[in-house]
Please model this.
Amino acid sequence: MQYEVDKLGFYGKYGGAFIPELLHSNVEELEDNYLKIINSDSFQKEFRALLRDYVGRPSPLYFAKRLSEKYNTKIYLKREDLNHTGAHKINNTIGQILLAKRLGKTRIIAETGAGQHGVATATVCALMDLQCVVYMGEIDIARQAPNVSRMKMLGAEVRPAKSGSKTLKDATNEAIRDWINNPKDTYYLIGSVVGPHPYPDMVALFQSVISEEIKKQLKDKENRDYPDRIIACIGGGSNAAGAYYHYLDDEKVELVSVEAAGLGINSGESAATSVLGSDGVIHGSMTKLMQDKDGQIIEPYSISAGLDYPGIGPLHAHLIESGRSKVLNATDEEAIKAGLLLTRLEGIIPALESAHALAALEKIEFKPEEVTVVNLSGRGDKDMKAYLKNT
Amino acid sequence: MGKERINNLFNKNKKEILSIYLTTGYPEIDSMPVLAEKLAGAGVDFLELGMPYSDPLADGETIQYSSSIALKNGIDFDQYFNQAKAVRQNIDIPLLFMGYFNQVLRIGIDTFLDKCVDSGIDGLIIPDMPPEVYKNKYKPIFDKYDLGLSFLITPTTSDERIKMLDELSSGFVYVVSTSSTTGKTIGFSDSQIDYFKRINKLNLNNPMVIGFGISDKQTFRIANKHSDGAIIGSAFIKALKDSKDIEKTAMEFAQNIIK
Model:
């Protein structure tokens, strides 16, 4: 595969493990074991069974008739919103919790922004009876109260990240510091295709079930196993990585990544990393990130807490740099509008993250016979406040 | 001077070498040069000048706090170099910069090292520089400027890897006393002492300097029994935080350790 990670953990010039020595043994243990464990029969059997019986997979590939009519083309929605806990995040947490158990870890830590990954982590920890600590920015705790309650109800301890800008990037820093301080018993369960190698590769592998299913489902519905185009939103980029994975080397499939433009690309309040960012290191990985002239990381902004991240996964940096994926962006306003449109046309309330992917439909010229898959990464229950405020 | 100044210090066979870490731009934007002079005057052997970073992964609460204040104060790259240069004009002890890889990458390795030389910096500590990447890509550039890196080793670093990190280091190896971020622990346990002894037995090329967990005269003494020197960071920053007269505090802090 052309876009696969290399032996040192790089996608082209991006990726790697730029970590303090304090983390070396933790990361090395993972790197030495993850493929062996994930590829074992017993792991695959347990992973697949849980995806089917617990998560509810395969998630439907739904032909959105009225949406298709509006854009005069064929649009399918990959319904990750119908998964248990309401988003694609659970695919990854199921995979990593099984890995953590096989590594003999007894304590799980995670970072979360909007709380979706935190909830998905707390959920699998409850399922596996493992101690769970979720780091969440102090500001995010205040603005995502329902998810904080869900995590607590599931038995997780939610620790406020009080450093820096008190949002997702700082929650990630705090989780990494916790891991440094607890190198033996603790497993760090990262929520996206970010962080030092092997995390980006591992999370992409767990999420790749999305494109694996799209292939089969399209074969049934369209009598061919590929679409002309896949559209997905990217913050860190895990849902996009999963939706693209089995099509990465299939150049006839156009990959469209949609970033959050916030109040507008040049407003100073944006999270459009590929446009505003430059090469650098964040959370142990070489990638594109938003930074100032001195390399200080800039806090992004988006109405969608899940896209409010100053970097992107190294795989995406490579896909963008090589021209394999195309990047569009959507403002807060465009995302809200697209979310409301889907609600009224199809009776589906999308997460604000997924609404960014839907907003891109306005910016693409379709041919009637073309097949487009939009990865509907999550449901919008958590975003009711933002939707109501903006209608 | 570069590497030579650091090597000279360790070749003097001086007992109990003391290094102090201070955050550039903390507590006031221009505090560092004055504090550095007081510390040097009190007999501190070398200084680590922190370049505040927005996302310092290896640092605990105290140094994170000082970095965030320094950034709020408006500290930037030009000032790291200008202030270091001012320090160098008045004192002759080794000066090291400590910062994160992204900062160095952003300004460009060549530009960064060139300015380090110009400012009288003798060595660097970049905790998230991967040794493999350094070896293959950056070491020749560092060599060109006669500057070196001191790599960190930790209680979980294997003997084989310690030897590799020692090979790549110049000046000294930075022995992190504990598996934790900075400022997290106080005092040493038996297993930490065993770890120091284990490293001593490896007969490394470089002197070993212990950091993390050293806060007072007692821990400084113990660390020096098992090493060639010791670094104090968080405890000093904490003292500044609580101080009404930082110059006096700096002098007294160093004197209390050394006397």
Remarks:
- DSSP finds 16 helices and 14 strands in chain A.
- Residues 258 and 328 of chain A are 5 Å apart (CA to CA).
- The first strand of chain A starts at residue 10 and ends at 11.
